[in-house]
Write a structure and sequence with these properties.
Layout (H helix, E strand, L loop, with lengths): L7 H9 L3 E2 H9 L3 H25 L5 E5 L6 H14 L3 E6 L28 H12 L4 E7 L4 E9 L5 E6 L17 E7 L4 E2 L5 E2 L1 H17 L3 H18 L9 E4 L5 H14 L8 H12 L16 H4 L8
Parallel strand pairs: 1-8, 2-6, 2-7, 3-6, 7-10
Antiparallel strand pairs: 4-5, 8-9
Helix pairs in contact: 1-3, 3-4, 6-7, 6-8, 8-9
C-alpha cells in the first residue's frame, strides 16, 4: 500500500483484520483523508449493527433486547442506533435505561470501604425491575420510573407503557446481561448484546493501547463536559469501576447472543481534542499525576482531528458532545 494514497478499500480490509495501528491512522489524517476515514469507519459499524437488528426482527418471539457492557462502552448510543435499525426492519422499539430502576441513593448497598457501591447489581431495584418486565411481556401496562440523579430518588411523572404486538423493548445498562435482572422472562423472549470496545490500537505492531484506556478517555471527556467532574475525580474512581466490571459485567459476556465492537478507528485522534486540554490543566502535585502523564503520552502519539467532522449520530458523540441522541 502506498504511503501517499488511501482508499475506501484500505479502510475496509483494515477493519476486517481488526488491526489498528497508530502510524496508519496518522498517515491517513496527515494525507487529508480524515473525513473519509471517519465516514467509512462509521458505515462499517452501522452495517454490523444493521445485521444484529435484522436477526432480532426475524424472530417474532423476541420482546426484549438487553444491551450491557462496561463503563463508557457507548451503550446508550448503541441502544438508540439499534432502535433506528429495528424501525427500518418494521419493528416498533422502545428504549429504556436500567438507570431508572436504581434504588434511592440512601438505600444503595455499601462496599467493603464503607462507601456506597454504585457498581453492584444490588444498586438496582431487582424485584421491581423484574415485575415491570414480566408485566410488559404479559401485555399489562406499567408506570415508568425516572431516576433523579440530583436528588438521588426514583420518581414517577405519570408516564405509562404497554407493549403492542409489534413493539420490542431495548434496554441498556451495566447489568443488563445478568440473569438476575430478567429471571422472570423466558429465554425465547430475550436477545442479549454485549457492547464494548474490543479492538485495541497498536503503536508499532507490538505495543498495544488497552481498550480500557480508550474507555477512560471517553469517560473523562464526558464527565468533564456533562457532569462537571475533573479528570482527577474520574481517574481516582477508575480502579473501583474496573473491579465492579470484573465482578458484575464481564462474567456474562459469553452469554450474549451478539457481540458489538464499539471501537472507533479514529477515536484517540478525536479524543485528544477533548481530553488533552483538561489533562494539561491538572496540577503537577495532584494525586495520581503519574497516571495523567502516562495518559498524555498516549494521546501525543496521535495526530488530532477536527471533531466537527464526526457525524452527530456517531457513538463517539456520546463522549465528545453534540450527539443527536442527547436529551433536548
Amino acid at each position: 500500500m502506498r504511503n501517499d494514497r488511501y482508499t475506501i478499500h484500505d479502510y475496509v480490509s483494515y477493519e476486517e483484520r481488526s488491526m489498528h495501528t497508530m502510524p496508519f491512522i496518522n498517515k491517513v489524517i496527515e494525507s487529508g483523508k480524515a473525513a473519509e476515514m471517519i465516514l467509512v469507519t462509521e458505515a462499517i459499524q452501522e452495517k454490523k449493527l444493521a445485521k444484529i437488528a435484522e436477526t432480532i426482527a426475524r424472530d417474532r418471539d423476541k420482546k426484549i433486547v438487553l444491551i450491557a457492557g462496561p463503563s463508557s462502552s457507548g451503550k446508550t448510543s448503541t441502544s438508540k442506533r439499534l432502535c433506528i435499525q429495528l424501525m427500518a426492519c418494521r419493528r416498533h422499539p422502545v428504549a429504556l435505561s436500567m438507570d431508572n430502576w436504581y434504588v434511592n441513593r440512601e438505600d444503595t448497598p455499601l462496599g467493603e470501604d464503607g462507601k456506597p457501591d454504585f457498581e453492584t447489581i444490588y444498586s438496582v431495584d431487582l424485584p421491581l425491575f423484574n415485575e415491570n418486565l414480566a408485566d410488559l411481556v404479559a401485555g399489562k401496562e406499567i408506570s415508568l420510573p425516572t431516576y433523579n440523579f440530583v436528588s438521588g430518588k426514583r420518581e414517577y411523572n405519570g408516564e405509562k407503557l404497554a407493549l403492542t404486538e409489534d413493539m420490542i423493548l431495548v434496554i441498556e445498562g451495566l447489568h443488563a446481561l445478568n440473569p438476575l435482572v430478567t429471571e422472570k422472562i423466558a429465554p425465547r423472549n430475550k436477545f442479549k448484546i454485549y457492547a464494548a470496545p474490543m479492538s485495541p490500537i497498536s503503536l508499532d505492531g507490538k505495543k498495544w493501547i488497552p481498550t480500557t484506556v480508550n474507555r477512560l478517555f471517553r469517560r473523562m471527556s464526558r464527565d468533564y463536559q456533562t457532569r462537571g467532574r475533573s479528570p482527577q475525580q474520574t481517574i481516582a474512581e477508575w480502579n473501583s469501576v474496573k473491579r465492579g466490571e470484573e465482578k458484575w459485567i464481564l462474567p456474562f459476556k459469553d452469554d450474549a447472543d451478539a457481540l458489538f465492537d464499539t471501537s472507533m478507528l479514529y477515536e484517540l485522534a478525536a479524543l485528544r481534542k477533548t481530553a488533552e486540554p483538561i489533562l494539561l490543566a491538572v496540577p503537577h502535585d495532584a494525586p495520581d499525576y503519574h497516571i495523567v502523564e502516562r495518559l498524555l503520552d498516549f494521546l501525543r502519539f496521535f495526530t488530532p482531528i477536527d471533531i466537527s467532522q464526526i457525524p452527530n449520530t456517531s457513538l463517539l458523540r456520546e463522549f465528545v458532545g453534540g450527539s443527536i441522541f442527547e436529551p433536548k
